[in-house]
């Protein structure tokens, strides 16, 4: 799984909507998302495993984007971490 997969996963969520993993996987524009799972297709719970991975990965990307935005805002406002505050 690479950055390009993350990009297309985010683009798929923008196009098809949140938690629409099946629609994203079926769409030919987002076929790159299916590439990392080609070796696991023989497993019985393949689709469930794949959908859970996509949901976890999206949640991780979502959290990273939120933190990035908070850091950007803090830099814009000139906020700095206090050395006396352990948080």
From TrEMBL:
Domain called CHD C-terminal: residue spans: 1-84
Source species of the chain: Rotaria magnacalcarata
Protein name: CHD C-terminal 2 domain-containing protein
InterPro entries per record: CHD_C2
Gene3D superfamilies given in the database record: Homeodomain-like (1.10.10.60)
Superkingdom assignment: Eukaryota
A family per Pfam: CHDCT2
